[in-house]
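Quick start: what a row looks like.
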Amino acid sequence: MKDRRVRAIRHVALRMPQAERTATFLEESWGLIPVGAGEFRGTVDTRPLVTVAEGPAAGIDHVSFAAADRADVDAVAARVQRLGMPLVHEPGLDAEGVYRMRCLDGYGLMLEVAETRPTRAEPAPHVPFLDRPMLISHVVLNTPDLEGTADLYQELFGFEVSDRYGDYMAFLRCNRYHHSLALGAAEHTSLNHIAFEVGSIDGVMRSGSRLQHRGSNPVWGPGRHGPGDNVFSYFADPSGLVLEYTSGLEVFDEDEPRAAKVWPMDDPEQDNIWGTGDPTEEGMALMLGAPDPYLRSRP
């Protein structure tokens, strides 16, 4: 097992035009629980999983990774400097008392590593949400340099490659689950989608059915991925943000993990072993997205 310095996705901070519309969808349709202005949590922890702020275009403000303690935050900062990369924020306490650091990846995406001590949340009402999202299962990012970006995330944070899907995707894990982060080859950097664990395969199916009764049709699924073995159902919010209900992600033996393999792209059932079809054209376009407008230049 590698010397990992992050253990999960902590949160994803988004900027969206008509942010209030996205916020309403996340609460009333998707099932996340509001904890503050533009902040939404799942059922497991009190901290926000998604934050939404107003912006002129849809994009990522930053992605935050959870570290077990301050020593891990400091270790990532030291790795950043050892690679000759600038720190945007040196390790220290923010205004809310969270110990964190920030840097930019190779294309200017803001990355944060923060000390994270989960605090169990009080139960939330389940009606009409029988299967509220629990936590972020994984995030998928598009990148114009698949191999270089994958190497960087391994070097900085201790991610390990679980599998590849041809030369199109790399699945990276930082805990015992198949992937917390996946990277997809594209001509630009953008958010592909955010996936939320709902606790069971039945939960994926119930959640998707409930959304369809509310007038939202899936842009992909339900189905089951080959890489990761997880059941999925993808939907888009009114602003084009793609979200996934998922469960059943493959669990690795951390002491003796299986070797990574390359899943062939010439067999469509490897991507969806249920054979229920590919993403819709709308879904593929939304997951590819536009070049992220909030990438920063290195200082």
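That is the whole record. The CA atoms of residues 83 and 187 lie 25 Å apart. The chain has two domains: 8-115, 135-288.
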